[in-house]
Amino acid sequence: MEKYYGRRLVKKELPDQFLTQLEKMPSMIERGTKIQCQRCGALLDKALVKLPDHSFYCPACIVMGRVKSSESLYYYPELPKQAISASVLNWQGQLTAPQSVISKALVSSTSDILVHAVTGAGKTEMIYQRLAKGLMAGEHICLTSPRVDVCIEIYQRLTRDFKVPIRLLYAHGDEYEHSNLVVCTVNQLMRFYQSFDLIIVDEVDAFPLVNNPNLMWAIDKAKKSGAQTIYLTATPTVTLKTKVASGELEALVLAKRFHGFPLVLPKFKWCSNILGLIQKGSLPRKIHKCISKQRLTRFPLLIFMPEIKLGKQLRQILQGAFPSETIGFIASESENRKAISQRFKSGEYTILIATTVLERGVTFSKIDCLVIASHHRIFTTESLVQIAGRVGRDKRRPTGQLIFFHQGRTRAMKQMYREIQQMNREV
Ligand SMILES: [Zn+2]
Fold first, then answer.
1. How many other β-carbons are positioned within 10 Å of the β-carbon of residue 75?
2. CA of 25 to the centre of ligand 1 (A)
3. How much is the pLDDT for 35?
């Protein structure tokens, strides 16, 4: 039964012989003309989700197997807490003074907290003491992020830095076995019910969590009542800022990068008909000149593009214009994302073209960075702050070139500039 503690699942996910031992609860609740899925919280129009047998189903979370109103959800209570006396932490590193202030605050607080730490501040190390304290007290703890790449990266660090067994759950990951420390995508949280004493949400503002009430609902259901939530981000959303302003959420701010150097501010360069030219297979002269100059430095070059198709096109153009460079391309659809970013890290690729899939959760050393068509609507303030945060992360080169080519400064561009300036002033 180990794998069912604290879980809430649909019938198909369970062996028949266990069904009688589990608690049942309705999978959907009718609310007038609407019906609400109890796994993901989606409020649905009955007329649109009716099945031929007159029951209803939820299309919102169907990728995880169908929830149907005529079938219950099954729940098995979480194990009671059991404290351990052995040490759980392998990590021997040292926190910087500002990191240490946040770390201590996290250890002593039991309320919900937003940690607003700039990109490259070293967020993960700051939660270690809190994790260690919780694990020793027998807490059931989950680290979750909307992005699977971020989850995998966190999992790898935690398995290195902690001595306890850790489970990693995502759509095509391992099967669950009970463990006090779980790393999972936010979707996987929907399979837990009143299970966790602490949920830490990393990159809370990332797609698909941003502005998605269903996923926030899942976080809420997966927690025990009175459990704590800690949100970690470099770019808090308006919703989170409002919660801080109303006192619902405590805020801790870390404006300093771990190496103590300020965040890099972008240079905005106007360039006409950028995407039109790239579409036709040619490179705007300004961009060509900029890349030629940058390549003389031999620092790795990361280029952000707004669309997959244009990114692929740019790769072809650049390969023709700069035949001695090895150029990679990465997007959400790339199957071997990990391997591609590894090739860029190791220097095998000298230039990497990316969509916003690479805007967060990855650290490259000593890179320069261009954003092409930064006025494009896909580049939100949060996204641009994250992109800017890729530069200057290595203390051996805490600066770097950061250039945004655009056709008109958008609100997002101006806002990101102001936000970075403000964080640099707080240092
Ligand atoms: Zn649902």
1. 19
2. 14
3. 97
pLDDT of residue 155 exceeding 70: yes
CA of 313 to the centre of ligand 1 (A): 38
User: Averaged over 211-236, what is the pLDDT?
Assistant: 88
**Residue 259 within a domain:** no
Q: Which CATH number covers residue 313?
A: 3.40.50.300
The count of domains in the chain is: 3
Percent of the chain with pLDDT over 90: 79
Q: How far is the CA of 172 from the centre of ligand 1 (A)?
A: 19
Cβ proximity of 42 and 36 under 8 Å: yes
Determine the structural domain holding residue 149 and report its residue range. Answer: 97-254
Please, what is the average pLDDT of the chain? 93
Instruction: Report how far ligand 1's centroid is from the alpha carbon of 380 (Å).
Output: 28
Residues 244 and 272 in one domain: no
The neighbourhood of ligand 1, an ion, using CB within 5 A, equals 37, 39-40, 42, 58, 60-61
CA 212–ligand 1 middle distance (angstroms):
13
CA–CA separation, 374 vs 302, rounded Å? 14
Q: What is the pTM assigned to this prediction?
A: 0.86
Do 405 and 303 belong to one domain? yes
Residue 208 has pLDDT above 70, yes or no: no
Letter string b/e over residues 293-325, b meaning 16 or more CB atoms within 10 A of that residue's CB: ebbeeebbbbbbbbbbebbebbbebbeeebeee
Q: How confident is the model at residue 358 (pLDDT cuts 50, 70, 90)?
A: confident
